[in-house]
TrEMBL record:
Transmembrane segments: none annotated. This is GTP-binding protein. Residues 234-254 have a biased composition (Basic residues). Residues 261-356 form the CobW C-terminal domain. Belongs to the SIMIBI class G3E GTPase family. ZNG1 subfamily. Residues 229-254 are annotated as: Disordered. SUPFAM superfamilies: Hypothetical protein YjiA, C-terminal domain, P-loop containing nucleoside triphosphate hydrolases. Zinc chaperone that directly transfers zinc cofactor to target proteins, thereby activating them. Zinc is transferred from the CXCC motif in the GTPase domain to the zinc binding site in target proteins in a process requiring GTP hydrolysis. It comes from Microvirga terrae. PANTHER family: COBW DOMAIN-CONTAINING PROTEIN, COBW-RELATED. InterPro entries: CobW-likC_sf (IPR036627), CobW-like_C (IPR011629), CobW/HypB/UreG_nucleotide-bd (IPR003495), P-loop_NTPase (IPR027417), Zinc-reg_GTPase_activator (IPR051316). The keyword rRNA-binding does not apply. Keywords: Chaperone, Hydrolase, Nucleotide-binding.
Length: 378
């Protein structure tokens, strides 16, 4: 290998889910699957996984080898330090050249900062390819947990994939259908998987493939699903308007936590100038950063419309991880998918329209907004 060859990216999956949602049980199954050989699992403490029957040997303090060829380590210092330490040991041949990392978060963790820490670390981002967030949701207690804990709602909202666990214990099939609907509404872009889904389906699906090449961007973006959910929710609200009192239980399902989190998609048929896009994203993240749980996009730049740029953001950082050699499909609209917390679609849309030079009547234009971003606040 010459110094010029960048090392292959190591896929990294963040596994989250509320306390008792079944993360560890899921992980235990995944680690026995030959498809996930040479995986490193990072967790908070070994006690969690019930390793005894899988344990082969202790490799190092805080690191053990499991029978299926996986390494398991605990977080030492912070997560960044642990991920750096793993790379160092791997590069020095002190541990097997692991091919994948799974981070199991504690049940109360907000996965966004973890994602943020890895995605935007100057060195880690060159070595690890984030495959996304997988959230375990309990089929029996999931709805009650979402009602009671905002953290659980956020975990489901930012997931790329949601695994529904404990379906074998379900006694109310309608309740399970409602849970599915609720999760679809909360996070229309996420794949909903059964607890026995193939290991590969649970851990993979990120923007980058194992070879470090860009993967299926349309699959990653899920624009259609987000747009369809928006239309459905719009029609639903209008339906309610005209028929008050009908379909009442449906509304009761959607509580305040869910209501504050939204997924929506903004598009432009016209290519966007690079400077305009930069200013839009900059203003958005500086004024609303904490509320941006995820931002994903594919944008045609006016300067080079044949090579769309991929946009990825978590909270205050939005970046361009890749420029594509071509459009993934005939749909050449620029599109940005947002998952936001406590932020109105309208606020973001007005900003987007203003920068695209299509302000609605009585709305400030881009120049006015750049001078005074606060004018967006209602
Ligand atoms: N019947 C059944 N029980 C399950 C399933 N998944 C998990 N459980 C049980 O649910 C309980 C909690 O599961 P864990 O896997 O420990 O959940 P966790 O999310 O790791 O829990 P914490 O680490 O405490 O946050 C355990 O008693 C599991 O045996 C499932 O699919 N079916």
């Amino acid at each position: 290998m010459t110094a010029m060859t960048p090392p292959a990216l190591i896929p990294l999956t963040i596994l989250t889910g509320f306390l008792g949602s079944g993360k560890t049980t899921l992980l235990n199954r995944l680690l026995k699957d030959p498809a996930l050989q040479d995986t490193v699992v990072i967790m908070n403490e070994f006690g969690e996984i019930g390793l005894d029957h899988l344990l082969v040997e202790t490799v190092d303090e805080g690191m053990v080898l499991l029978s299926a060829g996986c390494l398991c380590c605990t977080v030492r210092g912070d997560l960044i330090a642990t991920l750096e330490d793993l790379l160092r040991k791997r590069d020095n041949d002190r541990i097997l050249p692991f091919k994948r990392v799974i981070i199991e978060t504690t049940g109360l963790a907000d996965p966004a900062p973890i994602l943020h820490a890895v995605l935007y670390h100057p060195y880690l981002s060159l070595r690890y390819a984030v495959e996304g967030v997988v959230t375990a949701v309990d089929a029996v207690n999931g709805a009650a947990t979402l009602d009671a804990h905002r953290e659980a709602v956020k975990q489901a909202a930012v997931a790329e994939r949601i695994v529904i666990t404990k379906t074998d214990l379900v006694q109310d099939p309608d309740g399970l259908v409602r849970l599915h609907e609720r999760l679809r509404q909360l996070n229309p872009g996420a794949a909903l998987l059964a607890a026995d889904a193939p290991a590969e389906a649970v851990v993979s699906g990120g923007l980058f493939g194992l070879d470090g090449k860009i993967g299926d961007v349309a699959e990653w973006l899920k624009t259609e699903a987000v747009e369809a959910a928006e239309h459905a929710s719009h029609a639903h609200q209008h339906g309610h308007h005209h028929h008050p009192g009908q379909d009442h239980h449906h509304h009761h399902d959607v509580n305040r936590h869910d209501d504050r989190i939204r997924a929506f998609c903004l598009t432009s048929d016209q290519p966007v100038r690079q400077g305009t896009l930069d200013m839009f994203l900059d203003l958005l993240r500086s004024s609303q950063g904490a509320k941006l749980l995820r931002v994903k996009g594919l944008v045609a730049l006016a300067e080079d419309p044949d090579h769309p740029v991929v946009i990825h953001g978590v909270q205050h950082v939005i970046h361009v991880p890749a420029v594509l050699p071509r459009w993934p499909s005939a749909d050449r609209r620029s599109r940005l998918v947002f998952i936001v917390d406590d932020l109105e679609r309208d606020t973001v849309e007005r900003l987007w329209n203003a920068f695209l030079g299509r302000p609605a009547v009585d709305q400030p234009d881009a120049a006015a907004l750049s001078d005074n971003p606060l004018s967006l606040r209602r």
